[in-house]
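debug: dumping io for the single-chain case to check the tokenizer round-trip. Nothing else runs in this session.
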Amino acid sequence: MPLEEGIGKWLKYMEVIKRAAGSRYCMIEFVRNDEPGQFLEDAETLKK
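debug: decoded output
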């Protein structure tokens, strides 16, 4: 599933992570069908 389709859930997760001590980062580990275009779309979603 594209990351954009689950953005509501991920935003809730990010709010919890922001409250945790220390530095954090996000990484895309799985991309639908291993498609480069989907990776780029997911990366744009992470930038939001």
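debug: round-trip ok. The CA atoms of residues 2 and 32 lie 6 Å apart.
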